[in-house]
Amino acid sequence: MEPQLVIDALSARPGGAAVLALRGPRIAVVGGFVRDVLLGRDPREVDLVVEGDVRALAEQIGGNVTHHAAFLASHVSRDGLELELTQARRERYPHPGALPLVEPASLEEDLPRRDFTVNALAVTLDDAQLRAPDRALEDLGARRLRVFHDRSFIDDPTRVLRLARYSARLGFVVDHNTARLASEASLDTVSGARIAGELRLMLEEPDPVVPLATVATRLQLSVDPSLVARALALAPADAERSLTILAAVAREAPADWLDSLELTARERAVIRSAEHAPLLAAAAVAARRPSELRDALRDVPVEAVAIAGALGASEEARRWLGELRHVKLEIGGDDLLAAGVPAGPELGARLERTLRRKLDGEIAAGREAELASALGSGA
Ligand code: ATP
Fold first, then answer.
1. Are 290 and 166 within one domain?
2. Which atom of ligand 1 is nearest the CA belonging to 86?
3. Amino acid 62: pLDDT
4. SS3 for 99?
5. Could you write out the DSSP letters of every residue in 120-167?
6. Nearest-angstrom CA–CA distance, 107 and 26
7. How far is the CA of 146 from the centre of ligand 1 (A)?
8. At what angle do helices 314-322 and 290-297 cross, to 10 degrees?
9. Do 190 and 291 belong together in one domain?
10. Residues 309 and 297 in one domain
11. What is the pLDDT of residue 70?
């Protein structure tokens, strides 16, 4: 394995030269960046581990710097460079599933506290030397995920979810003992918020369905790959991809479990709408005209409409999402006020009825026809 490749990849990054010019304590690039370069993959974020204070180093690079004092970490964002600096530490878990208590330590002590051996490779910047804990290189060569010790999933059960994510993304096998330990680990000790954090990372993967299916039972999800694919194909550009997938797989999950995950209000609302997707699909299919399709789908988040479409209302979902939801009147309340309609519910009702006629093709195009319709005796 050629550590210089890692240094070269770092220097090719925007702002990479500034990182390599850092002076101070011993610094190493670590984790996914090293793993991915050595695998010939395109690495994502740059993680640095530092034997000493990270604040001063982060400030040396400049840009947008955020410090997380409790985690002995800083984040730098500068001209396309996203850099996570973490002080080398040893960790102690006060109880299973808790966030670890950390204290400064050497790089050599820091590496084996990580989740999997292949994520614990580091290259020190001053001498371009590879630092690899026992078996890390062997596991990388064998394309294998292995935890460092038998308590790893007890200390931090979110690693069970990380295991599924890396295994799917990298196409790595899971070491036999690691697979057994993961299957025996319980997620019960971890906060819902941390589980949701890992779930979101999974949803952001290029292909989230495989890792989601791996952990479906544990997370009380129902993963139907073809349903997810159909929903994504119907989802419009303004739908959030990860939210469409989340709602598709979590729509049958028990409410108290979803509540425990402390999802955002938006995530929870979209899942709640998706719970009703079969009914929405039936109502959409039953709609006889565009205004009725609007009645069925107007207040439904686009992600949930896509799921309803995937459940049997594909034509209706496509028409609503692609065309009908964008239909607006050219006139507004001001036009009716100016024409003498008093302010109040009657005004809104006239606009609503006019929009329905427009959707159903009952009035000619243009402001004049809309105004005539809104002011007409039948309106
Ligand atoms: P990615 O390619 O997804 O960015 P990464 O390996 O860089 O992968 P991060 O989540 O950015 O992943 O974490 C950086 C490093 O921190 C990991 O490579 C791993 O060594 C360590 N790490 C992160 N989360 C944990 C955890 N829960 N337990 C132990 N080590 C962890």
1. no
2. 16
3. 85
4. coil
5. --EEETTTTEEE--TTHHHHHHHTEE--SSTTHHHH-THHHHHHHHHH
6. 8
7. 14
8. 90
9. no
10. yes
11. 85
Q: Is the same domain home to 306 and 247?
A: yes
Atom of ligand 1 nearest to the CA of 162: 27
Q: What is the tally of structural domains in the chain?
A: 4
Closest ligand 1 atom, residue 120 Cα: 20
Ligand 1 mutation pick, 47, 161, 166, max ligand atoms within 8 A of CB: 47
Please name every residue paired with 89 in a beta bridge, in sequence order, or none if there are none: 104
Average pLDDT over every residue of 94-101: 89
Domain around 344 = 333-375
Q: Do 115 and 44 sit in the same domain of this protein?
A: yes
Under a CB-based contact definition with an 8 Å cutoff, are residues 85 and 77 in contact?
no
In angstroms, what is the span from residue 86 Cα to ligand 1's centroid? 12
115 lines ligand 1 (CB under 6 A): yes
Which of the listed residues 136, 161, 189 is the one where a domain comes to its end? 136
pTM, entire model: 0.92
Integer Cα distance of 1 and 271 in angstroms: 46
CATH number at residue 201: 1.10.110.30
Same-domain status, 345 and 308: no
User: Domain check: are 150 and 162 in the same one?
Assistant: yes
- % of residues, the chain, pLDDT over 90: 90
**Alpha-carbon span 215 to 184, nearest angstrom:** 13
Mean per-residue pLDDT of the chain: 95
Q: pLDDT digits over 4-59, tens only?
A: 999 999 999 998 999 999 988 999 999 999 999 999 999 989 999 999 999 999 99
Q: Whose CA is nearest to atom 25 of ligand 1?
A: 115
Residue of 33, 75, 83, 115 to test ligand 1 pocket, by largest number of atoms within 8 Å of CB: 115
Q: Are residues 11 and 124 in the same domain?
A: yes
Final residue of a structural domain among 193, 219, 245: 219
